[in-house]
Amino acid sequence: MASDRQSGCEAFARVSALLPVSLAVLTDDPLVGFAQAVEEAGRVLDGLRLGVAREFDNRTDETLGEDSLARKLGAKRPWGALETVTRTSAKDARERVAEARRLAKFAVLEAAVEAGVLGRAQAVAIMEPLLPAADRADTALVEAACENLVDLSKVLPATAVVEAAEAWALVLDPDGVEPVEKAAVEKRFFRLGRAKDGLVKFSGALPVEQAAAVRALLDAYVNPRAGASVMFTPNAADDSNDVEDGRQKPMLTATETEPPTDTRTPDQKRADVMHAVFAAAARAPETPTMGGSHPTVLVVVPKDDFETGHGAARIDGEDEPVSAKTAKRIAETGGYQEVQIDSAGKILNLGDTKRCATVWQRKALAVRDKGCIIPGCTMPARWCEVHHIRPDRDGGPTDILNLTLLCWFHHNDIDTGPYQLRMGDDRTPEIRWTFGSHATEWIKAIHTPKRDLSTAT
Q1: Which of 28, 140, 312, 433 counts the most CB atoms within 10 A of its CB?
Q2: Which contacts (CB < 8 Å, 24+ apart) does range 328-336 have?
Q3: Looking at domain 359-456, which of 3.30.70, 3.30.450, 1.10.30, 1.20.120 is its CATH number?
Q4: Where are the domains of the chain?
Q5: pLDDT for the residue 367
Q6: Which ranges are annotated Low complexity under compositional bias (predicted)?
């Protein structure tokens, strides 16, 4: 390690020779060299900082009494003394002492840090996966693992070295996963928050097994390269590197033969799949009932607002209102009942359920439409909502000849989006879309998840 320590000292000399420096005036090659020298010098400083923390800790043993270094500096603990002397934060001082203590379990890593081979962040990242196995594994094997990881850290980014450390942890303690797994099962949770600004946040933590099942389902529908028989249509956003805050910028394209691109980001697609799964489960015969009915979203909206589509509605259990337009769309799939109430809140009349597609109608639609009829959409029939092609306000009946299947996203977008629907002369749905100021010819609305429109022309 002596040569590594010497290399670190030389890095200090290279950095010092350029100080003071204006980084903006450096050309590319000098800037790259300066960055490397600064990082190398930083690793040496990290080793010195952790060495100081370890020594403060050693000299603050309670058995030393008045000779305790922390007590001399007016502190009770080594990190308090370190905070006072270095003016770092209390959190950082505590972490330095804790890291120095953990490093003491790995002599090879500790020596590498002292020599400036490993920086503080590198050492911690390598050490964390190995810690659970440190007390149970063979000492010689632990040292061999550390030596290998130190060598890797000289040529690979920290992320790759961490993956190697995780692999070594399984070698050192093959049974170490089981207690972690059991603890994870106890910590699992799923929680829905309160509505704010039209959104309801949810949070949770799933054991790996459960998360894998959810991820596999979402990926099967979201990943355009998954090779599954059903998947979202690939779009430019899926392949773009233009990502900001986890969202990709969509691109709208359409031609006379090619429908508009699916503009949803991958994260939005996952949200839509999750909603579709829960909505389909609520309709399933085996789902437990609530008061004799399957789980139902109860929406309350004034009759005038419902008929005009303007105004607000309330969903039972949610703090924020939704639009009357949303209420109408929910009613299309789930139906609605008219309830007459007087000014005192007394119920005067309870009407029959209206505009609700029956189970048999849904089955017939599934046979005919097979899924969402928007070209390229792969949402299967069981996850779709029922849409009235001719709206209720225009006298459209809840009849199989006026119904079709749309996924939640396209159902929500059908009145304002580029697509238009009608029932053809042969009593099957037809569709067209706009591109620019033009509109395509009407074609049969056939579920075409792979965007093969040859059968629809």
Answers
A1: 433
A2: 328/392, 329/385, 329/411, 329/412, 330/297, 330/299, 331/299, 331/306, 331/355, 332/385, 332/386, 332/387, 332/388, 332/411, 333/357, 333/385, 333/386, 333/411, 334/296, 334/297, 336/299, 336/306
A3: 1.10.30
A4: 2-180, 297-356, 359-456
A5: 92
A6: 253-263
Strands 247-248 and 347-354: unpaired
Residues of the chain falling short of pLDDT 70: 1-9, 11-12, 18, 174-181, 209, 213, 216-253, 285-297, 317, 319, 332-338, 342-355, 448-457
Q: How many Å apart are CA 28 and CA 34, to the nearest integer?
A: 10
pLDDT, tens digit, 9 for 90 and up, residues 232-247: 444 444 444 444 444 4
Q: Please, are residues 400 and 367 in contact by the beta-carbon 8 Å criterion? A: no
User: What span, in angstroms and rounded, lies between the C-alpha atoms of 129 and 115?
Assistant: 22
User: pTM of the entire structure?
Assistant: 0.53
Per-residue pLDDT reduced to its tens digit, 140-157: 888 898 999 998 888 888
Which two tokens mark 210?
A: 């459960």
* Residue 437: count of CB within 10 angstroms of its CB: 5
N- to C-terminal Cα separation, the chain? 73
pLDDT attached to residue 237: 41
**pLDDT for position 429:** 93
> How many of the other CB atoms lie within 10 Å of CB of 371?
23
- DSSP structural state of residue 426: T
Helical pair 120-134 and 107-114, crossing angle rounded to 10 deg: 170
DSSP annotation of 226 reads S
- CA-nearest of 276, 168, 177 to 221 is 276
**Structure tokens of 311?**
């105004």
Note whether 364 and 397 are within 8 A (CB).
no
Tokens representing 95?
């972490």
Q: What are the Cα distances from residue 363, in Å, to 63, 144, 366?
A: 80, 63, 5
Count of C-beta atoms within a 10 Å radius of residue 13: 10
Per residue, what are the HEC states of 75-92? Answer: CCCHHHHHHHHHCCCHHH
The per-residue pLDDT for range 84-128, each reduced to its tens digit, is: 998 889 998 999 999 899 888 888 888 888 888 888 888 888 888
* Rounded Cα distance, 99 and 77, in Å: 15
